[in-house]
Amino acid sequence: MPSSKRLSLAFVLLPLTLAGCAHHNDEFSVVNGAVGQEVTRTSCPAVAVPAYTGDVTLFDPPQSRDASAIDVVATITDVRGVCDDTAPDTLKTTATFRVDARRRDSHGARDVVLPYFATVVHEGDKIVAKSISRVSIHFDDGQLLASTTGQAHATVNRAEATLPQAIRERLARKRKPTDPDASIDPMSDPTVKAALAKATFELLIGFQLTQEQLAYNATR
Questions:
Q1: Which pTM value belongs to this model?
Q2: What pLDDT score does 192 carry?
Q3: Residue ranges in the chain modelled with pLDDT below 50
Q4: Residue 7: which H helix or E strand, with range?
Q5: Are the C-beta atoms of residues 202 and 45 closer than 8 Å to each other?
Q6: Which pLDDT score is estimated for 27?
Q7: Do 91 and 83 meet the contact criterion of CB atoms below 8 Å apart?
Q8: Which residues pair with 83 in a beta bridge?
Q9: What does the pLDDT read at residue 175?
Q10: Nearest to 130 by CA among 139, 118, 122
Q11: How far apart are CA 120 and CA 134, in angstroms?
Q12: How far apart are CA 81 and CA 151, in angstroms?
């Protein structure tokens, strides 16, 4: 992933992909507004690909940015998260994903190795863990397209990821149209928003890009 200077750019923007994890014990429905719209909230870390990090483009020659110099383009897709809640004190998310790649020249067999990051983020912007791994994509002779799969993990403290009972009850309470606060979304309350942020963890996955690659993705 880019240096800390660039982290804010990737994290403040909407994720390209978001995959939730099923978790029965800590899952509940949040009721928004007077219409009673329900949104499911779980303590499990959500899995997302930060903006501008789900694609990587390799050039030949490397210093060129001309379309004719594009050598390989790869994309992270089909991101899925599964949560293991069997441990009493922790929640573990395992994320799987596919990398689809296309090369310019189909002549000869070729292997392309791409680094990717897995970062556990707390409260939207606090990095609590990070790892760098690699995926290898193999092109057979005559093949333009190839795919491979990758995996990442996140383990968080169950207590830290669980909302206080008072906040849970407030969010889940079903209101009638005649209630004084029927038209007020509890999610807009600063206390509730702070509690939600404090209990939120994410597992962010993306290509480990150079500053130049990140800039290319942001401006193309």
A1: 0.78
A2: 84
A3: 2-18, 20, 22-25, 28-39
A4: helix 4-12
A5: yes
A6: 53
A7: yes
A8: 93
A9: 64
A10: 118
A11: 17
A12: 10
Burial class (CB in 10 A: 0-12, 13-18, 19+), 98: middle
Phi first, then psi, for residue 50 (nearest 5°) are -60, 150
Q: Edge-to-edge, what's the strand order for the sheet holding 201-207?
A: 17-19, 46-49, 201-207, 110-122, 126-139
CA atoms of 120 and 25, how far apart (whole Å)? 22
Question: How is residue 85 written in tokens?
Answer: 């809640």
Q: What is the pLDDT of residue 42?
A: 75
Backbone torsions φ then ψ of 218, nearest 5 degrees = -75, -20
Residues 21-45 pLDDT 10s: 544 445 544 444 433 444 456 788 9
Point out which residues pair with 85 in neighbouring strands: none
Q: Take residue 168 and report the two structure tokens written for it.
A: 């849970």
Alpha-carbon gap, residue 148 to 190, rounded angstroms: 43
Give the Å distances, CA to CA, from 176 to 35, 113, 165, 180, 186. Answer: 9, 57, 22, 9, 14
Q: Are 129 and 120 in contact (CB under 8 A)?
A: yes
Q: How many residues does the chain have?
A: 220
C-alpha 199, offset from chain centre: 16
Position 71 scores a pLDDT of: 98
3-class DSSP assignment, residue 143: coil
